[in-house]
Amino acid sequence: MHHPLFLPLLLALLLLGACGQVPSTDPAEAPATGNAPEAEILEDVQERGRYLVTVLGCGDCHSPKVMGPQGPVPDPDRLLSGHPAGSQLPPYDATTTTGWVLFAMDQTATVGPWGTSFAANLTSDATGIGLWTEEMFDKALRGGWYKGIEGGRRLLPPMPWQGYTSLTDADVHAIYTYLVSTAAVENVVPPPIPPGTN
Ligand code: HEC
After folding, report:
1. Under a CB-based contact definition with an 8 Å cutoff, are residues 192 and 146 in contact?
2. CA of 164 relative to ligand 1 center, distance in Å
3. Span 148-165, average pLDDT
């Protein structure tokens, strides 16, 4: 004996299948982002840059957040603009940071053995990377040099530049092309705070 719901359910599934509305489970067929069709991402340098910035999670640290139902989400008005200048970090117990790394709620500031670091402004504004050459950007992203100045200081954690040394020239070019196309957000990110001084 079939369950009384079985036949209607089967019919409904068949109908859905016939209309092509059953979602594909093949990842190759799924769109790479919600923003642009795959062909565009592959062909358009700026779209590819946006795709890479999305999947590499640059905004996890570089975008200020607003509170959503499940916690902080990127603020669409301040995407990639870095740790907001003038915002007050909440107090923390310094003994905790001997064994833990602390992320501020919006993930733009982090406390660890290196002190407190603040995610940079990556927008096209002059306070971001708007005045940077592609070479400077490359030296920062793949070389880990602050402001792209070789021989200056190395970028602090949690900026994961060591992993980004494996990016190809074409990917760095695409990321730079996208970032200099972003909406300019004026924001002078504070310098890092050395350990033991806050
Ligand atoms: C896990 C957090 C995190 C992620 C992910 C991250 N960054 Fe960063 N980034 C930082 C922090 C923090 C700094 C500041 C480090 C410092 O002051 O030394 C930084 C610094 C930078 C700088 C140097 C800015 C300057 O003024 O010298 C560039 C360029 C940069 N990030 C680009 C990127 C890009 C592009 C991505 C994605 C491909 C990315 N970051 C992903 C945290 C992150």
Report:
1. no
2. 10
3. 98
CA of 119 to the centre of ligand 1 (A): 6
Alpha-carbon Rg for the chain in angstroms: 22
Return all residues near 37 (Cβ < 8 A) that are at least 6 apart.
Answer: 31
pLDDT at 10 over 80: no
> Is 167 touching ligand 1 by the criterion CB < 6 Å?
no
Q: How many CA atoms lie within 13 A of 105 on its CB side?
A: 14
pLDDT-derived band at 27, boundaries 50, 70, 90: very low
d(CA 38, CA 29): 9
CA 133/CA 8 separation, integer angstroms:
63
Mean pLDDT of 173-183: 98
